[in-house]
Amino acid sequence: MISSGRHPKKEIADELMTTYAFTVILDRQPVGSELDALFEAGCDDAAFGTENGLPVAEFDRNAETMADAIASAVHSLDEVGLTALRVLDQDRVTLADIAERVGQNRESVRRYAAGDRASGDFPPPVNPSRDGTVFYR
User: Are residues 15 and 71 in the same domain?
Assistant: First the structure.
């Protein structure tokens, strides 16, 4: 048997991890020397750049939970002197967002969500009791 050089329990633990993709808005863009330090601090799973004029880090982090993934990413950023201002939740969308993605109008998608146009298997909103904008995953 060929050994990978890793501890068998560690390999099993890694296989049980889920990869979570998320974007963190930073207080500033990292400078040249900080990029190497970020890699050494564990941010080898991140890409740094700007989104809508804001400095961001886009992570694909392995962890047991999304909370663990975000917490470890924030800790790694802190080690280098960068501050995570907030995490973008790109999985939450409105009916208008869904309509744009699938090429239909908002009313058509609203009718699917209400069960008027299909079997009623449209996913439920993540904030059903909130007045105003309703979000879906």
Answer: yes
